[in-house]
Amino acid sequence: MEDDEAVEDLLEVYIKSLEEQVETKKYFLKQAKEAINTLEKSSRSRKIISDEEWQRFLKKPMYFPERSDPIGLSLASVGLRTRRDTSFEWIKYMENHLKAMEEIIQYQKNANHDITVLTALLEQGIDKSKQGSFDAEVYPTTPKMENQQLLLQTEQFIRTYLSVDMVNAEDVGTDIYDEVMALIKRLINYDKTLKVTDFHHGSRSLYRLLLRSNLIEVESDEKGEKHIKLLDFRKSDLL
């Protein structure tokens, strides 16, 4: 209780000292303005100020602030506190901004990895195709035969490369070929019932790969369920 009273007494003395300093500065500021006005009025009639006027002016007391200037110390303290608070706010903002940037960078790294994997798999498939790994001794002569041949090549590519690469740590030792191939066929056949939730476990990587490669379109129905369909490459706006 005594400590609180002592603090209040010190605060009262401090405030009183500030008020006195403010009044003192007002007085000297008024004196300075009056002196300047006097010099300006006298200098209008004469371009040169006489030595006597300078002597009278210099005899007036100059104002020198005290070493322990309460107003100056108070202004410095307020300025430092304001600067500290502003710095803390900026640091907090930058921390949140940094987290968002880290998430964006990580997302981009994942996208780059998926694209790298897809590129490598496609290059391997092209090399195998050139070497004749896809047995096609008899070239198709009709659209139906061409589609069948392409489907066989797609199945072999998915079985040999894509489904193997998409196995994650949780599904090690699991063959996800049937799951991936079934989803690919539904996409090819433009199955309108295909939803995002149909991609699970290992096939989630297939969904991300198709989405980031801009090969599918995702639309929401009136219930909020997201449906997926293969991009229609016959659209003129894709050219």
Q: Brief overview, please?
A:
This protein has 239 residues and is mainly α. 67% of the residues lie in helices and 4% in strands. It has 6 helices and 2 strands.
Structural class: mainly alpha
Form type: elongated
- On the 0-100 scale, what is the average pLDDT? 77
CATH class descriptor name of the largest domain: Mainly Alpha
Question: What secondary-structure arrangement, pairings included, does this model have?
Answer:
Layout lengths: L1 H44 L5 H8 L11 H62 L11 H23 L11 H12 L14 H10 L3 E5 L5 E5 L9
Helix pairs in contact: 3-4
Describe this structure in words.
By secondary structure, the protein is mainly alpha-helical. The protein folds into two domains: 2-99, no CATH class; 134-238, Arc Repressor Mutant, subunit A (Orthogonal Bundle), CATH 1.10.10. Helices cover 67% and strands 4% of the residues. The protein contains six helices and two strands; from the N terminus they run ααααααββ. The protein has helices spanning 2-45, 51-58, 70-131, 143-165, 177-188, 203-212; strands spanning 216-220, 226-230. Strands 1-2 form a two-stranded antiparallel sheet. Helix 3 packs across helix 4. The chain is elongated and about 120 Å long. The N and C termini lie far apart (83 Å). The relative contact order is 0.05.
